[in-house]
Amino acid sequence: QSVLTQPPSVSAAPGQKVTISCSGSSSNIGNYYVSWYQHLPGTAPKLLIYDHDKRPSGIPDRFSGSKSGTSATLGITGLQTGDEADYYCGTWDNILSAWVFGGGTTLTVL
Amino acid sequence: QVQLVESGGGVVQPGVSLRLSCAASGFTFSSHGMHWVRQAPGKGLEWVAFIRHDGNEIYYAGSVKGRFIISRDISKNTLYLQMSSLRPEDTALYYCAKDFGSQYISYFDYWGQGTLVTVSS
Fold first, then answer.
1. Are strands B10-12 and B115-119 parallel, antiparallel or unpaired?
2. What is d(CA A46, CA A39) in angstroms, rounded to the nearest whole number?
3. Which of A108, A74, A81, A96 minimizes the C-alpha distance to A25?
4. Which has the closest alpha carbon to A22: A40, A41, A2, A38?
5. Which pLDDT tens digit goes with each residue over A23-60?
6. Whole-angstrom distance between the N-terminal and C-terminal Cα of chain B?
7. How far is B23 from chain A (nearest CA, A)?
8. Whether B5 contacts chain A with CB within 8 A
9. Residue B114: CB partners within 8 Å, gap ≥ 6?
10. Any CB–CB contact under 8 A between B103 and chain A?
11. Chain B contacts of A101, Cβ < 8 Å?
């Protein structure tokens, strides 16, 4: 059971928008930067968003991040079938003195 | 370009030791923190350990503390994970990941392809 809570799955049609939530607490999201990762099992995960809302070069602006209080959200617009993957939020937790990932959310583009 | 290549995985029996390696290239290895992250079959990503750029600060996940040791050899641009007293629940694909920062954990900007560790009798 992760300290960061994500929905197990989300789905939407091609071209639509989806949001993935990541709920934490003051010991993690409330005081530390959140990053988001896209992962196809068996392959190298990819950084999508860092410092809550910044995109690395090469990541399209269809991907966005935000944070409010002790929760963070990943948004994906203009969904494509190639976006089907697992998505993870992550941040530092100062009670655990450890990096923590959310449980992961599987995105299905119907 | 940044490359991280893990090796050393295999099938081992419970209780034995195994050392994973991660060969790094394409960036100044001595200037960045490094991590190990794993994914057990059918499970999510689990952070395992972090070592600061100079090796002087190290953190472990509670599930491996006291059994795993992370280290780095700057002269060889290589990250290591010495795993001892292995358990079936350590079975996972182990990823090496580069931290954007040097002294503090910031985020994982590059990842390797992983090396598979299977602990089974």
1. parallel
2. 6
3. A96
4. A2
5. 999 999 999 999 999 999 888 999 999 999 999 999 99
6. 40
7. 15
8. no
9. A42, A44, B6, B39, B93, B94, B95
10. no
11. 37, 44-47
